[in-house]
Amino acid sequence: MTEFWETAFTEKQLIWGNEPTASANLASDYFARMGIKDVLIPGVGYGRNAKGFLDRGMSVTGIEISDTAISLARSQLGLQIPIHHGSVADMPYDSRPYDGIFCYGLIHLLDPAGRAKLIQDCYRQLAPGGHMIFTVISKKAPMYGQGERLGEDWYERGPGLQMFFYDTGSVEREFGPHGLVALSEIDELMPGGGSFPFINVFCMKGEMT
Asked: Which pLDDT score is estimated for 16?
């Protein structure tokens, strides 16, 4: 997985542009309404999704496995936010509780154990009363079912690229024990035109959890 993303970032630089995704804009608006101040972004990439939170006065900490992506965040977007260099599989990187966590387009690239661990680790690092939003790819995506089948709704789309496709049932199964409060469908624009269907998953940690 690391080699796949290093190649993608190196060859295409700002492969997805420099503007936040629709889901990141939605999340930053939602976090602002909730009064969230400190945000953790696992899989921050080169930082385009951090901009919306920063523009609303929130502090942002990222986690990113790709050296190249971190370099692009510094050199191309001018971001000086803290970014822990490493895999989300090795969370937590600090003992700080965050009142907001946003994770875009990452968890569906992990195997079942990796997905479960990421959700659990994020929930553990979420402050009481905090909110976390995951953006996951939907089974309605046109490439669903393509490639070698690895398991239920899980396919290898290419070398080093495995994808798990979500629906309401799998969202409830994986996120239900971790404060799931809502989910909503959203179409995200893709490089070169067109869009793919995603699901935004909203979770909240109870005050006394």
From this structure: 66
Residue 144 in tokens: 């669903």
What does the DSSP 8-state code read for residue 82?
-
CA atoms of 31 and 133, how far apart (whole Å):
10
Q: How far apart are CA 9 and CA 68, in angstroms?
A: 6
pLDDT digits (tens, 9 = 90+) for 64-108: 999 999 999 999 999 999 999 999 999 999 999 999 999 999 999
Beta bridge partner(s), residue 199: 136, 185
Higher pLDDT, 182 or 206: 182
Whole-number Å distance between alpha carbons of 114 and 200: 19
Closest CA to 82 of 54, 117, 105: 54
* Burial class of residue 8 (count of CB atoms within 10 Å of its CB; 0-12, 13-18, 19+): middle
